[in-house]
């Protein structure tokens, strides 16, 4: 169950912390001592799905589900309700690593191609496990110290109870990657072809489905090369 904090409790918790992301003029993500992160979720509407389960609670639930499936992600310590500032919050241990976007920006061409090959296999594994990460983009994927991948910003995520994602769900998730210019540049070039080929090889889908996925990927990212 979420723990309720007063405004005074909240201010004491974040005292000395570093705001590393804002939502408008309000703090969104605050780095605290001992590599802990507080992520705030503002309730924006009176009538909202958060009436049933808050985004902070979803964040925590998704963390547990991912970790149970062997996917690296943040470890949630507490979920808070902070009614005086109209927020819920998740306190979690920071996951060591750098974003895939930053990693690729510093890598050589050959290193970029190899990392995108591995990323294609990783996304295929998510889909095979029935995980639909709607916020997937290179800023929400970390390259961990051992070179593997982890996920952050995990509030918006779906899990199939049984089986893998459908072909249409996979196509939709490819479209979710089409958000940032730097990511498009990577996925519209040779790295994108490496990604989709690696994805298909690891997908465990019948080969009759491969052309549909390849066409959808090319329609999404190929437009940026024309």
Task: Tell me about this structure.
The structure is a single chain. This protein is of the alpha+beta class and 226 residues long. The protein has two domains: 3-93, Phosphorylase Kinase, domain 1 (2-Layer Sandwich), CATH 3.30.200; 98-222, Transferase(Phosphotransferase), domain 1, CATH 1.10.510. 41% of the residues lie in helices and 23% in strands. The protein has eight helices and twelve strands. The chain has helices spanning 7-14, 55-68, 100-106, 109-128, 167-176, 181-188, 190-202, 210-221, and strands spanning 3-4, 18-23, 26-31, 36-42, 72-73, 75-82, 87-93, 98-99, 131-133, 141-143, 149-151, 157-159. Strands 1-6-7-4-3-2 form a six-stranded mixed beta sheet, sandwiched between helices. The longest helix has 20 residues, at 109-128. The chain is globular, with a radius of gyration of 19 Å. The N and C termini lie far apart (52 Å). The model has no long low-confidence stretch (mean pLDDT 93).
């Amino acid at each position: 169950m979420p723990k309720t904090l007063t405004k005074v409790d909240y201010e004491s918790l974040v005292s000395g912390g570093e705001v590393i992301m804002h939502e408008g003029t309000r703090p969104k993500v605050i780095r605290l001592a001992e590599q802990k992160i507080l992520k705030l979720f503002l309730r924006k509407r009176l009538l909202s799905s958060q009436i049933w389960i808050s985004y902070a609670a979803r964040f925590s639930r998704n963390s547990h589900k991912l970790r149970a499936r062997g996917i690296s992600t943040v470890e949630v310590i507490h979920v808070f309700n902070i009614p005086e500032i109209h927020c819920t919050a998740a306190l979690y241990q920071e996951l060591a690593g750098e974003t895939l976007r930053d990693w690729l920006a510093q890598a050589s061409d050959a290193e970029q191609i190899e990392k995108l090959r591995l990323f294609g296999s990783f996304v295929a594994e998510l889909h095979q496990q029935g995980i639909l990460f709607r916020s997937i983009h290179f800023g929400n994927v970390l390259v961990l110290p051992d070179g593997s991948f982890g996920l952050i910003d995990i509030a918006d995520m779906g899990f199939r109870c049984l089986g893998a994602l459908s072909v249409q769900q996979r196509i939709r998730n490819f479209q979710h990657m089409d958000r940032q210019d730097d990511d498009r540049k990577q996925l519209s070039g040779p790295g994108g072809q490496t990604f989709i080929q690696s994805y298909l090889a690891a997908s465990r889908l019948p080969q009759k489905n491969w052309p549909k996925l390849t066409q959808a990927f090319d329609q999404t990212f190929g437009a940026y090369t024309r």
